[in-house]
Amino acid sequence: MSKKVLITGASGLIGSQLTHLLLQRGYRVAHLGRTKRAGNIPAYVWDIHKQEFETGTLHEVDVIINLAGAGVADKRWTAARKKEILESRTKSAALILKMLQTESHQVTAVVSASAIGYYGFGSAQVFEEEAKPGNDFLATVTRHWEEAIDSLGALNVRVVKLRIGIVLSNKGGALTEMARPVRWFAGSPLGTGKQYLSWIHIDDLCNLFIYAVENAAMHGAYNAVSGQWATNKELTKTIGKVLHRPVWPLPVPGFVLKIILGELAHLVLLGSKVSADKIKQSGFELKHTNLYQTVRNLLAGV
User: Fold this and answer.
1) Would you say 109 and 213 are in contact if contact means Cβ atoms under 8 Å apart?
2) pLDDT in tens, 165-224
3) Counting beta carbons within 10 angstroms of the beta carbon of residue 79, is it exposed (0 to 12), middle (13 to 18) or buried (19 or more)?
4) With contact defined as beta carbons under 8 Å apart, do 185 and 209 qualify?
5) Mutual orientation of helices 79-102 and 137-150 as an angle, nearest 10°?
6) 219, 224, 229, 232: CA torsion to nearest 10
7) Which of 95, 125, 211, 269 has the fewest other C-beta atoms within 10 Å?
8) Domain 4-233+260-299 indexed as CATH 3.40.50.720
9) What residue ranges do the domains of the chain occupy?
10) Is 282 helix (H, G, I), strand (E, B) or coil?
């Protein structure tokens, strides 16, 4: 019988594509979330705040892929939203731990999402996995998230953490948001435009998750990026080139974005250079490392 993968937080951009690719490869897939969605995929329900889960969730599950967590860029960062962003990650990890401790299971590995926000932003340093965490809000969230996931290792399961960069997709996320004003002839860099963006094509990211499922030698943290970072200005101009639209040289001032977005503006005004050397050395082959070809593939289907 084929291996069974349980995906938490599967309703998002990554989970939807990952489900499709796993099924293509012959895996059995089940979903675990706050509500039970209609469809052909077996679905189970959990409540991370009550620390409760549906009986039978781990039946025949071999690997858990953990994508659970409130969207960082979905809403302004009020105090309540910050608490939700943190607890949606730490409490989901705690509930996975409880499930593995209390249910009979055959789970051998947990592959969890993390984020390059772990390192902080605004530095000229090229971050490798051994770098120390930053001290801003997202770095603090990610550090606590990873510590919660690391606790699963005490149960004799293999733990892999993929520190995800900016995911480029034509179905949502940063690329579609950046392409929208460009399509309407209103594209321009944000802030200085010099902030570095460490990106990854969604297909490479999903294939990396599957590679981590299949490769028993993988343990610990890996940067899930292409290794070919670009500035905000370079990415915006590339989108314009692919869509045959002009990009205005006058950037959107940082203070305007801070007025509109509040503290959330840090996500678009700051950046970082993140290395992909470790995943390459593990044997994983990134297929999308050229920025222009990647944007052309996603926005023009070529």
Assistant:
1) yes
2) 999 999 988 899 899 999 999 889 888 889 899 999 999 999 999 999 999 999 999 999
3) exposed
4) no
5) 10
6) -140
7) 125
8) yes
9) 4-233+260-299
10) coil
